[in-house]
Design a protein that fits this description.
11 helices, alpha+beta, Beta Polymerase, domain 2, two-stranded antiparallel sheet
Amino acid sequence: MSDSTPVPKRLRPTLHAIGRVAESLRAPAYAVGGCVRDWLLGLNAIEDLDVTVEGSGIDVAGAAARALGGTVAVHQQFGTATVGLTQPVALRVDFATCRNETYAKPGAYPRVAPGTLEEDLFRRDFAINAMAVALSPARFGQLVDPFHGAEDLARKRLRILHARSFLDDPSRILRGARLAHRFGLTWDPQTSRALQQALASGALGWLNAGRVRKELARMRQEPDGPGCLRALRVLVGEARFQELARG
């Protein structure tokens, strides 16, 4: 854990309030994932935040919405909730309970169970997305980085968290191509070998068409959408790329 993360000034009042609410419920809350990565890169134009809670994410979301005068939509089947805020800044905050995921078979949707913060971070796709920022008053802004994602950002490196990552969820190959192109990252050598092994195993063919379309749509929405798709074509090869495009 490092001393602090450059949380944008415009977001601090909101995040301080969420941290106080979560502490009052004895359920520590953390900003997590892409927003933390972007803050470390100095990218502050964020309108969507992910918050993970060591406790009930739904309970903290409801209390935060009341404290901040926002709206809340509960997704009971997923154990998550979304809070919409207009003051002091317009913001959408997705709350979830820290969880652990296991995969019954490669490419399947995961089985989810409550977990620790570290387990919640370990289930993520790449180390640069497996960082959290504490929101509790005494620790506000402290970076939780058990898998050295900040070092990867500094080295412009893209690295999975374990050897079976692409087999558990082959859509990570597509997300990796998008992230690598957007941020100018180089694939970590072991990650690159795992990727090629997953491709040789036919892992992309395990994805259903809906998941493929979703990831390709995200690529097209990138600032350099055509370049992102070209990078994917190079990464997976022309034949696999055409199969994805037809899917």
